[in-house]
Specification:
Number of strands: 13
Distance between the termini: 33 Å
Shape: globular
Strand content: 25-35%
Structural class: alpha/beta
Order of helices and strands: EEEHEHEEEEHEHHEHHEEEHHHH
Bound molecules: adenosine monophosphate
Strand order of the largest sheet: 5-4-1-8-9-10-11-12-13
Radius of gyration: 18 Å
Length: about 325
C-alpha cells in the first residue's frame, strides 16, 4: 500500500556531549522517509528554500525507495532550520532555535501522481499544514501523525481538529502531559482516546514514546509496552522519534497487501510495527544526521530485529 509522508526537511545544528554537527540535513520528514524506505517505497511532500544545498538534496537519491516528486524547491524562501542541544545523558534536549522559513508559507501541494496514497504519515509540522495535506489525500486508509510541544503550545486548535481526522498519534510522554495536563502517560493517552471512543473517524491508538525507556501503546483494544533496544552507542538522538515512526509505518504499508480485508489498525499488528520502529531508531542514534542510515543494510536490520525479539520475549 503506497506510503506518503509530509513534514519538515530542514537544516539542523546539533550539539551533544559527544560532539557537534552544524548545518546538516535533518527534518522530521527526512528521518521518517529514510527509515521507512527500508520496508518499501515512500513518497515525500515537503518544501525547502533556495538555501537548501545540492549536497543535502542528493542524500535523498541515496535511498532508492524515496520518491521526491513532491519536494518543492522555493528559490526565494528559507529552508526550515532547527538547533538542539542534548543533556550529557542524552535523555533531554533543549531547542536552541527554530526558524520556520517555508513552514510559514502555503503548504506544499500533493502531486497528482501521489493522490492515490493509502498509508499516510504526517510527520512533525504545523498542524494546519498537516490538516491541509490530509485533505489532499482522499484515498487514505490509515493516517497517523506526530506532533510536538511547539505546536501544542502555539497551534492547539488545528491540532484538536487534526485528531478527529487521523487514526493514530505518536508523541513523547512530556508532550502527552502538555496536551492533556495528565502526568501519567497511560492516563494521558486514555484521555486523548476518550474523545474518539466509538466513531469510525478519529483516534484508534496513541503511541507514547519515552526515549531510552521505550514506548507504550494505548489502543481501543488494549494497552502494551515495548522497551527500547538497549543501545550502547548513542552519538546523536536526533530523529529517533521520526525513524521510529518510519519503521512502524513502513512495516504497516509493506504488510497492507497481505492483510487485505483485515483491520488495518489491529492492536497486535500495531505492536509488531512498533517493534520495527524501535529497531531502526536504534541504528539512527549511532551517528549524527543521516550518516548511520546511509550505511545501513537490510541484513543489519533483520539481524537486530531478531535479537530484539529475543530480548523482549518473556
Ligand atoms: P526527533 O528527534 O525525532 O524529535 O526529530 C528531530 C527532527 O525534527 C530534527 O531533524 C528537526 O529538524 C525536526 N524538528 C525540530 N523541531 C521541529 C518542529 N517544531 N516541527 C517539525 N520538525 C521539527
Amino acid at each position: 500500500m503506497s506510503l506518503i509522508c509530509t513534514g519538515t526537511i530542514g537544516i539542523d545544528s546539533i550539539y551533544t556531549s559527544t560532539g557537534k554537527a552544524e548545518k546538516v540535513l535533518g527534518g522530521s520528514c527526512t528521518y521518517f522517509a529514510a527509515a521507512a524506505s527500508f520496508h518499501g517505497p515512500v513518497r515525500i511532500v515537503a518544501a525547502v528554500g533556495g538555501d537548501f544545498g545540492k549536497a543535502h538534496a542528493k542524500v535523498f537519491d541515496k535511498f532508492p525507495n524515496i520518491d521526491t516528486a513532491g519536494l518543492e524547491m522555493r528559490k526565494d524562501s528559507k529552508t526550515f532550520a532547527w538547533g538542539g542541544e542534548y543533556s550529557a545523558d542524552m535523555n533531554s534536549r533543549k531547542t536552541l532555535f527554530t526558524e520556520l522559513g517555508v513552514l510559514m508559507e502555503a503548504p506544499p501541494k500533493v502531486p497528482a501522481a501521489f493522490a492515490d496514497s493509502e498509508t499516510v504519515f504526517l510527520a512533525n509540522s504545523h498542524p494546519g499544514v498537516q490538516l491541509d495535506l490530509l485533505k489532499q489525500l482522499p484515498a487514505r486508509r490509515i493516517a497517523v501523525a506526530d506532533t510536538m510541544d511547539l505546536w501544542i503550545n502555539t497551534a492547539r486548535e488545528p491540532l484538536v481538529a487534526l485528531l478527529k481526522q487521523i487514526d493514530g498519534l505518536v508523541l513523547n510522554y512530556d508532550e502527552a502531559e502538555l496536551f492533556t495536563g495528565k502526568k501519567n502517560p497511560v492516563t494521558a493517552a486514555r484521555h486523548m482516546l476518550a474523545d474518539h471512543k466509538n466513531g469510525k473517524k478519529g483516534l484508534k491508538f496513541v503511541v507514547v514514546k519515552k526515549g531510552e525507556h521505550g514506548a507504550i501503546i494505548v489502543h481501543r483494544d488494549g494497552i502494551a509496552a515495548l522497551p527500547a533496544y538497549p543501545a550502547e552507542k548513542v552519538i546523536d538522538p536526533t530523529g529517533a522519534g521520526d525513524t521510529f515512526a518510519g519503521g512502524m509505518m513502513g512495516y504497516i504499508a509493506a504488510k497492507a497487501k497481505k492483510r487485505k480485508g483485515k483491520d488495518p489498525f489491529a492492536f497486535e499488528h500495531i505492536q509488531t510495527a512498533i517493534a520495527h520502529g524501535t529497531v531502526v531508531a536504534s541504528f539512527n542514534i549511532e551517528s549524527f544526521s543521516l550518516s548511520r542510515l546511509l550505511k545501513l543494510k537490510p541484513a543489519d536490520l533483520k539481524k537486530r530485529y531478531a535479537e530484539f525479539s529475543k530480548i523482549v520475549r518473556v
